[in-house]
Amino acid sequence: MHTSTWTSLLFLGLANLVPEASARPSSCPPPLKPGKALYMISNGARNSVIALPINSNGLLGQGTSTPTDGWGSNFVTITNNKKEAAGPDALASQAALTISGNYLFAVNPGSNTVTMFSIDPKNPLKLTMLGQPVPVLGDFPNTVAASAKNNIVCVGSSGAKSGIACAPFSARGIGKMDQLRPVGLKQTTPPVGPTLTVSQVFFSGDEETLFTTVKGDPTTNVTGTLGVFPVDQPCDTRDAATVSTDGKLTKVDGTVVLFGSSTIQNSTDIFVTDPAFGAAVLSVDAESGAASIKGKATIEGQKATCWVAISPDTNTAFVTDVSSNRIVEVSTTDASIKSVTDLSANGDPGLIDLRAAGSFIYALSPGNGTTLPAVTVMDARSKKQVQHFQIKGLGASKSTQGAAVLL
Ligand SMILES: *[C@@H]1O[C@H](CO)[C@@H](O)[C@H](O)[C@H]1NC(C)=O
Ligand SMILES: *[C@@H]1O[C@H](CO)[C@@H](O)[C@H](O)[C@H]1NC(C)=O
Ligand SMILES: *[C@@H]1O[C@H](CO)[C@@H](O)[C@H](O)[C@H]1NC(C)=O
After folding, report:
1. Residue 18, pLDDT score
2. Which end of the chain has the least Cβ crowding within 10 Å, N or C?
3. What domains appear along the chain, each with residue ranges and CATH number?
4. Pocket test for ligand 2, best of 264, 265, 268, 314 (most atoms within 8 A of CB)
5. What is the residue range of the signal peptide feature (predicted)?
């Protein structure tokens, strides 16, 4: 490059970049690669997957909606003998959909099935259904987990027939679900909640264990339950791995309404939310199924802390509350509270499912029927809102639930 070119570039204002670039100390880690797209389920009468593209700057763009060929549903609340369909938080769950590799799995709570799609890696908004929606054996499926290592998908159901069923999957679709693993619930369809329902199913970091969190009920002194089901590897490697039907259901002392959870990288501990007090780090022995509170975050002024995502950038947990529009950051080692970000200026009533990708947090507010559904994008380092993206159309409503990110 000629000197004159440099000179003209400098005059064009490039020189201004120099002090800014050196403002970041060289000890700071470089920003992580952002995700490619954010997905949720509309959970309307006709269920669909809503996909929003994530731009290279981490911000969301206009999306698409793809039918799941299934139906949504809502759990019911009973107040003064009056039944009402729940929403926001129509499903009382975390992970109503999940991603494994380039596959996406979404529950259909109103038609008791799960739908599998392949994601076009060149166009993450393009979803192709693989096979047909598969019956999950239970009623009101509200959470799903998938293991890429074992090619297994597991679905938690919270209705009259409740429990967890698993099936193998391949590029052709989902195979037959095996059987319902009971989780100690006696419910109706749709369930009366939010207590005494399945909160989430998820695999351990090494994908050798399937966990489930089940809500207790403070009015009857029922504590939260953690289900621990080992993945059985076959002796012959040509056979498929299966999730054991012989799991352990552990009452976790000190928890009440165990809700959305996350594995913690390089640790066998798990991070759980509990709307009775906030959040906790549990130490878990996958062999025996024993679990106990290692650190507890009592979140001041919280109403329903139910969802969590751990940022790969900060290695801290971010939790949301459906009745309070803020994001609380919690340590994944001792559950100490690191920061509280008040988002009330954007007008949303509260937040539910969220995911962390790159240096950003994507948190869903389904609105409340008058406030539009929206996703708040927050910078995980600065804890500042960088975008408030309202979802117009696409079947989004106060029943919308779930969050998954394609990395
Ligand atoms: C729950 O436990 C408390 C404290 O042990 C007790 O006072 C209360 O009666 C119990 N409630 C029910 C419904 O069992
Ligand atoms: C986990 O361990 C790997 C390998 O030792 C390391 O590169 C990574 O930074 C660790 N992650 C965390 C969150 O500690
Ligand atoms: C919806 O949420 C907004 C913002 O919090 C609030 O002003 C409004 O009263 C709520 N509407 C309903 C129907 O709850």
Report:
1. 40
2. N
3. 37-406 (2.130.10.10)
4. 265
5. 1-23
Would you give the end-to-end CA distance of the chain in angstroms? 37
Tens digits of residue pLDDT in 364-387: 999 999 999 999 999 999 999 999
Q: How confident is the model at residue 239 (pLDDT cuts 50, 70, 90)?
A: confident
* Confidence class for position 2, pLDDT limits 50, 70, 90: very low
**How far, in Å, are 142, 158, 180, 282 from residue 267 at the CA level?**
27, 29, 29, 11
Q: What is the dihedral of CA 16, 21, 25, 30, to 10 degrees?
A: 160
205 lines ligand 3 (CB under 6 A): no
266 lines ligand 1 (CB under 6 A): no
pTM of the model: 0.92
- pLDDT bin (cut points 50, 70, 90) of residue 28 is confident
Give the type of residue at 110.
G
Q: Residue whose CA is closest, atom 4 of ligand 1?
A: 221
User: pLDDT-derived band of residue 405, with 50, 70 and 90 as boundaries?
Assistant: very high
pLDDT digits (tens, 9 = 90+) for 65-115: 999 999 999 999 998 999 999 999 999 999 999 999 999 999 999 999 999
Contact between 405 and 54 under an 8 Å Cβ cutoff? The reply is yes
C-alpha closest to that of 320 among 348, 351, 292, 293: 351
Give which of 115, 138, 136, 135 is closest to 127, Cα–Cα. Answer: 115
Q: What is the DSSP string of 8-36?
A: HHHHTTGGGHHHHHHHS-TTSPPPPPP-S
Cis peptide upstream of residue 141 (ω within 30 degrees of 0): no
Ligand 1 pocket: which of 219, 220, 221, 256 to mutate (most atoms <8 Å of CB)? 221
Whether the link from the prior residue into 190 is cis, omega within 30° of 0, is yes
